[in-house]
Amino acid sequence: MFFHFRHQFPQLNAYWDKYREFQQQLEVPAKTILLEEGKISQRYIYIEKGCVRTYFNKNGEEKTIQFFFEEEGLSSLDSFVNNVPSQFTIETVEPAVLYLMDKKHVLQLIEELSHEPDFIHMMLKMSVKRQTHYANEFVSFIRDTPEERYQHLLQDRPHIIQRIPQHYIASYLGVSTVHLSRIKSKLAKGKTRF
């Protein structure tokens, strides 16, 4: 669960090695469903290679929530912690190499990590980073136009533009693929004012 913070907390390397036997390594193609909306999350996912997205279904239309890349981890946290149905689906966007760890081993790992002197600091850092990201996304979705949100992607997270299919980006921005094409065309011509 915390292995994407290994570089900042070298003491996690020993836990990575210890818990490797409890992690199922998967090599899967694009469009592999890792968790279905409405199911209860029982595994934590760490991405070694590839890209994963989360989305929900609204009246038969997929609405992309977020993208995750190498050295990031995820689960449907509310579902994972509270044993409630997931509000979204988790699916690979690209062929991926993943590590999955069952909930009982994650809880065991947390228990062991709780004895580490920097555990609280690590948890706070991880929580703040995720909360800040989601708060910024939420504010941007309310405050900014789709054009501005696309411009933010170009400036702050160009890897999304480079690696993610256009229809997923459009869904993430809350626009149609036609509208996204217009946005890109305007930006290419330099007509959009921000």
Give a description of the structure.
Residues 34-110 form the Cyclic nucleotide-binding domain. It comes from Chitinophaga agri. It holds the Pfam family cNMP_binding. This is Crp/Fnr family transcriptional regulator. 45% of the residues lie in helices and 23% in strands. It has a domain at 3-116: Jelly Rolls. The protein has helices spanning 12-19, 77-82, 103-113, 119-143, 146-156, 158-163, 166-173, 177-189; strands spanning 23-28, 33-35, 43-49, 52-58, 61-68, 73-74, 89-92, 96-102. Strand 4 (52-58) and strand 5 form a beta hairpin. It is of the alpha+beta class and 194 residues long. The chain is globular. The longest helix has 25 residues, at 119-143. The strands form two sheets. Strands 1-8-3-6 form a four-stranded antiparallel beta sheet. The protein has eight helices and eight strands, in the order αββββββαββαααααα.
